[in-house]
Amino acid sequence: MKSVDHKTAVWDSASAEMLLKAEHDCVDTCFSRMETQRNQCRFGRDGLCCRICHMGPCKISAKSPKGVCGADADTIVARNFLREVTGGTSAHSDHGRHLILRLKKVAEGNGNGYQIKDEMALRYAARLYKLTERDRTANEVALDLANLFIAEMTSQEEILKTLSLAPEKQQNIWKRRNVQPVGIDRTVVESMHRSTMGVDHDYRNILLHAFRTALADGWGGSRMAAIVSDILFGTASPVRSTSNLGILQEHTVNILVHGHEPELSEMLAVAVQDPETIRYAKDAGAEGITLAGICCTANEILMRHGIPVAGNFLQQELAIITGAVEMMITDVQCCMPSLPDVARAYHTLIISTSEMAQTVGSVQHVFDEDDALHSANTIVRRAIDNFKNRDPHKVAIPSASRPLVAGFSVDAIKYMLGGRFRASFRPLNDAIIQGRIKGLVGIVGCSNPKEQLEYYVNTLTKKLIQHNVLVLKTGCAAIASAKEGMLLPETALEHAGPGLREVCEAVGIPPVLHMGSCVDNARILEAATEVVREGGLGDDLSQIPAVGVAPEWMSEKAIAIGCYFVASGVDVILGHPFHIAGSDNVTRFLNLETTELFGGSFHVCPDPDEAFLKIMELLDRSREKLGINKKTERKLYDMKDRRALDV
Ligand code: NFS
Ligand code: SF4
Question: 245-394 is classed in which CATH architecture?
Answer without folding.
Answer: 3-Layer(aba) Sandwich (3.40)
